[in-house]
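help with these tokens:
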Amino acid sequence: PAGVRLTWGSDVKRQNDSFGALGGALLISFILVYLVMVALYDSFLYPFVVLFSIPVAVIGAFLALNLSLSSLSLFTLLGLIIAAGPGAKNAILIVEFAKDLHKEGKSIREAALEAARDMLAGESFGSAGAEIVVEQYLDGEELSYFALADGKTMLPLSSAQDHKRAFDGDQGPNTGGMGAYSPAHLMNAELEEKIIHRLIKPTVEGMKAEGCPFTGVLFAGIMVVKGEPYLIEYNARFGDPECQTLMLRLQGDLLQILLAGAEGRLKDIRGQVSWSEHPSMCVVMAANGYPGDYRKGTVIKGLVDADEIDHVMVFHAGTKKGANGAIEAHGGRVLGICATGENLGHAKRLCYEAVEKIDWPEGFCRKDIGWRALQK
């Protein structure tokens, strides 16, 4: 309302009248819940996670250009503004709390407001910026967790950690994934219990309660902050390159597991699904230029030699057989070079030994897949 100034963690004031700290906190809590409930960024997910108390980072969504410092002052401690309109492809501006935000005398909130207005006006991301979401900046480490649902119950699977940036050291543009390993090094019994009971199980039970039971794969993108999991996103698929790492570790008949899910029998097969203790890794080989423009039709040699290395499997993602029988690249991410090992270091050595066998000058890969786990 006009005349009300909201600041994170402090009193709420109307002109010169103080509501007091408790009243301010209650009002802020109400407004935060309201903002999430009316969020149009995803008309199902965010109201859903609030209703079923699933920990997420999202705070609110905006469609209007008349954002003010008052409305954005709720987000003093927040650091993500996401373009979510038509055609958006996860365009994210990270408002970092660093000295350079104060250039030209701008405060953190003023810098965030300017970025939000530019998005809504179509100046930053075109139509994709017609709708924005403000999220809390979670300073943690991301992992992926997978489960199956049959509309009534869920079956926990396993975890992986992806590498989205194109180049070593997590540099360069975002991609569909340049490599992964499984299980994620962060995963332990306590964290898995939290993920299952705070994120996955409430989702499956909540969708059943809402009259839209879900059957299929739940791929949860999770940020772990000081040992606590927060849901970032859901996908309804296994994912690439995470899927390859999971399949190499799966002990059981995948077809029978999926059939049980489709027929609503997951509770009957819980004891039939297990995972190898040997970690797995997938190194993606992509065409030079990816994720931008790249050439098609370049010839790949050495695939047989790579595939013959013990515990190595080469998955084809973007290849075709040419007129003369040669294997050609016809995609951005072209090959998934995978291996299992006694430990993650061993799996990595096998992957890159196979990469060295492949003769494809027009391709590249990251050399540091698994670095977060291996540096520990």
